[in-house]
């Protein structure tokens, strides 16, 4: 039954009638920044899902080639996806052929349905479809509650139509995007995107800036992956949360320090025979002043790290 919550583009509803289209207000375009020629980023708010932001809390991007457009993450609701699509259409009328989701979290892919009528390939990590199927019912119910009926209206999950097993390249016309499926880190389905034309690296939530990192995979895997990603040559990076762009690898150092601190504190407390509740209350507190939303996520991060590290 969970799989019923996932839909291939265009399957769940028919085309909008001309009368309906006339009564549907046009989406107000999201603000975007051109961080390199043909590369645009919308910066999401440093916030939790709320009716006031309609799920607009993650960075969303699009890249324009000679022939086509690729979208990288689509926002936390249909409304935000529509506003992103409207922003694209203020810049270019080229076809939107690809929608790339960097991972499974709702703030990055609940806007997918806004692009269904474009008939793009929806691309994700090879574990993305399974992860979404397992969480679809909970994601939809929880986020409908958080956003409320007006902001969440029409939102549905769309399954990937193309899976990246290891590495894949898409050609936008004189512009190639290199997609790489990463091992378990932030989640078990993180996908990175590198624009070869501009040297821009899109990391999704493998990189948090100012917004405290959120652990939903493996803290050991994340730290190991950071060490590898630091060796990737890039002129700039786009984080999943934070400013539209930053220098690489300098941008990842605060996150690396945070994860190392959590890891060290938890390992010490496990060695001392302390409980997971004690760890959740105190581990990582030395990092508190460096991050937004620390109180909302740190205890959860510590709990996940403790459950992983106690079995070392």
Q: Which structural class is indicated by helix and strand composition?
A: alpha/beta
The main β sheet shows up as: 7 strands, mixed
Average pLDDT works out at 93
Q: First CA to last CA: what distance?
A: 36 Å
What is the overall number of helices? 8
Sheet-strand content, in percent, reads 15-25%
In total, the number of strands is 14
Helix content: 25-40%
Radius of gyration: 19 Å
Shape: globular
User: What is the helix/strand order?
Assistant: EHEEEEHEHEHEEEEEEHEHHH
Q: Write out the strand line-up for the largest beta sheet, numbering strands in chain order.
A: 2-3-4-5-6-7-9
* Low-pLDDT runs: 1-5, 7-24
Structural write-up:
The protein has helices at residues 18-23, 78-91, 106-109, 128-152, 219-229, 253-271, 276-282, 294-309; strands at residues 6-7, 33-36, 39-42, 60-64, 69-72, 96-100, 121-125, 157-158, 162-164, 167-171, 176-181, 191-195, 200-208, 236-241. The chain is globular. The longest helix is centred in the middle third of the chain and has 25 residues, at 128-152. It has 312 residues and is of the alpha/beta class. The strands form 3 sheets. The protein has a 7-stranded mixed beta sheet with strand order 2-3-4-5-6-7-9, with no helix packed on it. It has a 5-stranded mixed beta sheet with strand order 10-11-12-13-14, with no helix packed on it. A two-stranded parallel ribbon has the order 1-8.
